[in-house]
Amino acid sequence: MSLAALEKLHDERPKAIESCVAVAGYSIGELTGLIFSGAMTYEEGLKLVAVRGAAMQQASEISSQGMLFCYCLPSSNVFQICKQAEKWAINIGASHPVCRIAIYLHTQGKIFGGCNEALNYIQKHSAELGLRRVQKLPVSGGFHTILMEPALKAFTQALDKVQLEFPNTSVYSNYNGNIYSFNQKLNRKYLIKQIISPVKWEQIIQKIFNRPIDLDFPRTFDIASHGTMKTILQMINAKAAQKCYVY
């Protein structure tokens, strides 16, 4: 979710903003969602975005890291795959042998994050591991894994300077897939944990659109992903995607 695209939607369709009942931001977009909801000011949010980005970039430069998209067959065991890849990385002497599920994208789509040695193992053995459409992402960090632990200190210090308010609309946490609560101590914890934990995007989408069969799906706006989030929504809930508009 981009602030610029959000402003565009506000100018062109103000009623859509006024009637919004739920917000979900993918990864860094969660901060935009919190700004939109009034949980933090625009200025505070921008500072957090800058600090978070710089800290995670520094963490990504400590070792050779990356991310890998995979289409998982029903027979694949993603947790076992991570263990195998980590074991391989340890055996060949990787400095930071890590492999984790970084993003639960949709039912079959998962993104692994970790050291490049482990990701290369997955790529090489993808067929026997029950993986298809394996593709290395154009990033240099193992984001949303423990490889980002060095980024926590700077982000936590910046977050401590922010007075979090309770959101005026439901905002879903990437960390646990639930709506932010009245407990601001927990909300801060979730924002920090999000950096080193998998993004539960599929789980969030399921919760947002889970409804009785006779209840219509709401209008949804895909902000600034150029249609990527709508495509993912279609893979999770095709009927909900029919009422999704790209901005």
UniProtKB/TrEMBL annotation:
Residues 1-245 form the Malonyl-CoA:ACP transacylase (MAT) domain. One of its GO terms (molecular function) is transferase activity. This is Probable malonyl-CoA-acyl carrier protein transacylase, mitochondrial.
